[in-house]
Amino acid sequence: MDFKTFIDTLLTGTPIAILAAIVGVLLQAMYVLSRDRIHDRQAERELKLEQQKFEHQKELEKMKFEYEQRQWREQLAREITVRLVEARLDEYSKVWSFAEGVAKNQHEKGALTPKATKAIARKIKRWRYSKGGLLAEEITRDAAFEFQRALWEYDGSVEAYTRIRRARNIFRDAIRADTGLSEAIYQVTEARQKVREELKELQSKLGNNLNTEAG
Fold it and tell me: Residues 199-209, buried b or exposed e (16+ Cβ, 10 A)?
């Protein structure tokens, strides 16, 4: 019923017809209001759903980015570690070759003299201030220095030779920990701690007097 028909009914109709017209208009208005409310609620639900989808997608994109970033960092760390170990193996093999000069057979046949050990000590010193020392962990550089010092202070005695061998073994353990040749990754810290403790014991035996040339 349109507005003109409603007015005509009010002016010319019977009370029952008028009442029916009013009820009809009210029902139509209620229907329109209810329909609009349903439409609004539906639109609100759709908007909320779209927002949730957007937030969910945003979170997924963030997680994907963080995962890819973590993967990139881990891959970079692995590559750096591999290159570092390769470089260390090359440099450590050079310095370890110097240890051949203090082998037991050298000492037993009398070839290990103070002059010979000082020559080896100088080689160790040059290595400490070269690429090898730069790549080494601090504890490994300390072990190299104590090996160098024990070599420099060798006087031909059995006691002095024992200190050289002890220092050599500590240095060996240190470079093996650096390259992971003998220990699992989770054991490296433990291995370095063992080296640190053995170094302290050796240092107490060598004393605190440092020869300028030896250092």
Answer: beebeeebeee
